[in-house]
Specification:
Organism: Lomentospora prolificans
Helix content: 10-25%
Structural class: alpha+beta
InterPro entries: IPNS-like_FE2OG_OXY, IPNS-like_sf, Iron_ascorbate_oxido_reductase
CATH architecture: Sandwich
Family: Belongs to the iron/ascorbate-dependent oxidoreductase family.
Protein name: Isopenicillin N synthase-like Fe(2+) 2OG dioxygenase domain-containing protein
Radius of gyration: 21 Å
Number of strands: 12
């Protein structure tokens, strides 16, 4: 699907910035794929030719401001629990693999990226690497996470207005394998004591 760019007169420099940002993500992707290959006992460059087609996505997401208590009571979710085939407001939560339904907030660390394993990599690695169940919940309450406070001129006799958590922006980059690849268990990820858990499947399917 081709990109749909806003007119340059509306957002000057938008296309140029994100074209360069995408290229940067693509370069980081190669380093990540090399690290994963080494961790799985494969040749360092093993995964690179399987991801040479640029089947990747960069998404720009905005989670609107929401009342704090609605998030805490789970009356609303900014995005529900899911796996995948930050900015400094936090909110990312990951499910504890040993306690289903228990989610742990992932702290924001300046200058870092968060890497989630997706469903294909779990399948490829024969469950050596697990696809991360995650969701977007309520971030820690700090000045950076708080949005507007309605009726800030309240008197002590008035009921406090609901605290509002500000908008959250996220730019996830999804690494995709070439569509003509047959995903089967990678070497070193299966054997007599670890049989294959998945049937081979084409990426395009």
């Amino acid at each position: 699907m081709p990109n749909v760019w806003p007119p340059s007169g509306v957002l000057s420099g938008f296309r140029e910035f994100f074209t360069e940002f995408y290229s940067t993500c693509f370069r980081v992707e190669d380093d990540l794929l090399r690290a994963i290959a080494v961790c799985l006992g494969l040749e360092r460059e093993y995964l690179l030719p399987l991801h040479s087609g640029g089947e990747n996505q960069l998404r720009l997401l905005r989670y609107p401001a929401v009342e704090e208590q609605k998030l805490i009571r789970r009356e609303v979710d900014r995005i529900g629990a899911h796996t995948d085939y930050g900015n400094n407001v936090g909110g990312l939560e990951v499910e504890d693999p040993n306690e289903k339904g228990t989610f742990t907030p992932i702290p924001y660390v300046h200058g870092t990226i968060v890497l989630n394993v997706g469903d294909f990599l779990q399948r490829w690695s024969n469950d050596v690497l697990k696809s991360t169940m995650h969701r977007i919940g309520a971030p820690p309450l700090t000045p950076a996470t708080m949005g507007s406070h309605p009726n800030s001129e309240q008197t002590e006799q008035q009921s406090p207005s609901p605290r509002v958590i500000g908008s959250r922006y996220s730019m996830p980059y999804f690494i995709g394998a070439n569509t003509d690849i047959l995903v089967d268990c990678l070497p070193n990820c299966y054997g007599p004591e670890r049989p294959k858990r998945y049937e081979p499947v084409w990426v395009r399917d």
